[in-house]
Write a structure and sequence with these properties.
Elements lengths: L17 H9 L9 E3 L2 E4 L41 H22 L1 E14 L4 E4 L9 E13 H8 L5 E4 H5 L4 H26 L5 E3 L3 E6 L14 E5 L2 E2 L3 H8 L7 E8 L2 E8 L1 E2 L7 E2 L2 E5 L3 E3 L3 E4 L10 H12 L9 E4 L2 E2 L5 E2 L4 H10 L4 E5 L3 H7 L4 E5 L2 H9 L5
Parallel strand pairs: 5-18, 18-21, 21-22
Antiparallel strand pairs: 1-2, 3-5, 3-6, 4-17, 7-16, 8-9, 8-15, 9-10, 9-11, 11-12, 13-14, 19-20
């Protein structure tokens, strides 16, 4: 067997010094090399091998037993591969499931909306009047809002645990329309509400006012009434059984005294064409005994003409429910007397051109909102009276049916 050449080392051999190799060579060991090319020249006999010319070994030759191991790892027999304990596996599985539930629950939307308390805004800073003397007062008037949002699974669970939040099917809020369409309807209702408030308020303080329109514009049609399929959003009702309709109150008066089931003949402008539609009336579930078509309308091409210019910042809030508080705020601006007598008063309700106050949605959430701003009095439509009083804890709820009753309630406030 030949030994290592040119400095190569065999894996199971120990380090060999030149002296040991010399001894092995002269002792006839089986490591004796043949002729070596070394310091004595080519072909020199092994007995004359020059130790100083022997190749050097730069590596350390280790066998398995001499290989160092990390402390605590004695080998596969004494320390098998580590396995996690069962409790750690269970904990990891639970963490994974929780992560999946969190991701799904926060992204998957349900066919529900939540109605929660919104913000309440002081309205005196939001109303501007030009063309007549105005007055500042110590008291405050507040409009109140609700927050209406589609919910995810987690938000649905959170809403169920919140006594101030209710969940309603999406169909009741959007009627299958897009969010953009819903926003357009609410913006239109707000604009009509502001104009109604201006007309009613100016009339209350004795400022001449005229309002004109071109009919009743259909903003929304309920799905569960005969008018659905007969009337469309964007239709303008110009007459009822031959009676001309200029503003919304004309339509209300034309339907007065009609019984549920009666059929009225409507002349409607649709896409620049006039059509005639026979529409059966239905009973008003919120006011039994009275008949309605089952539509939401506002005055088409509504305009208020007056020597006084009124501007209202609605703070990007939609819907008609701020009509009453806007009316009171304009009156307060134009009156030398403080309507609120220095107190904090909130109000909600739709205002019509004849001064009547219509009921609104989300009154329970609005009660909570006005209590957050520490309002002392909350004026609400009579149709919302029971629900508002049942929810109220710190605020006094007064129910009104028109602007005159609202002004009388403020007049009864004790002075400060």
């Amino acid at each position: 067997m030949r030994g290592p050449q040119n400095g190569a080392a065999s894996i199971n051999e120990s380090r060999v010094t030149p002296e040991e190799m010399d001894e092995q060579t002269h002792g006839g060991s089986d490591l004796s090399p043949g002729p070596v090319t070394g310091g004595n020249g080519a072909g020199s006999p092994a007995s004359e091998w020059n130790a100083s010319a022997a190749p050097t070994f730069s590596g350390t030759l280790l066998d398995e037993e001499s290989t160092p191991r990390p402390i605590g790892l004695e080998g596969p027999e004494s320390n098998p591969r580590w396995r996690p304990p069962r409790w750690l596996k269970v904990l990891g599985a639970l963490a994974f499931v929780a992560a999946v539930v969190l991701i799904v629950g926060s992204t998957v939307r349900l066919d529900y909306y939540s109605i929660a308390p919104g913000d309440s805004y002081e309205t005196l800073p939001l109303v501007g009047v030009e063309g007549a003397p105005t007055y500042d007062h110590a008291g405050s008037l507040y409009m109140t809002t609700v927050s209406v949002t589609p919910v995810t699974l987690l938000e649905w669970v959170s809403a169920r645990l919140d006594s101030d939040t209710v969940l309603v099917p999406a169909e009741q809020i959007d009627g299958g329309r897009s969010s953009e369409e819903v926003d357009e309807v609410n913006e239109a209702l707000m604009e009509g509400s502001k104009l109604n408030a201006e007309a009613v308020a100016l009339g209350e303080v004795g400022i001449p006012v005229e309002f004109t329109g071109s009919g009743a514009l259909v903003v929304e049609v309920s799905e569960d009434v005969p008018a659905s399929g007969l009337l469309e959003r964007g239709d303008v009702i110009e007459s009822v059984d031959g009676t001309p309709i200029s503003v919304v109150t004309d339509l209300t008066n034309a339907l007065a005294g009609r019984a549920p089931g009666d059929v009225v003949k409507l002349v409607v402008e649709r896409d620049d064409e006039k059509i005639t539609v026979d529409v059966p009336l239905v009973e008003n579930e919120e006011n039994p005994g009275k008949s309605i078509i089952g539509i939401v309308v506002q005055t088409a091409d509504f305009d208020v003409e007056s020597p006084v210019d009124v501007t209202i910042d609605s703070r990007n809030v939609g819907g008609p429910s701020a009509g009453l508080v806007y009316t009171l705020t304009i009156i307060d601006r134009l009156s030398p007397q403080d309507l609120t007598k220095g107190r904090r008063v909130a109000a909600t309700g739709e205002i019509s051109l004849d001064g009547t106050v219509g009921e609104i949605g989300g009154v329970e959430q609005k009660v909570r909102s006005v209590e957050e701003v520490e309002a002392e009095l909350f004026l609400v439509p009579k149709g919302n009276c029971d629900a508002a009083r049942a929810k109220a804890e710190t605020v006094e709820v007064v129910c009104v049916s028109d602007i005159d009753e609202a002004l009388a309630a403020l007049d009864d406030l004790p002075g400060q």
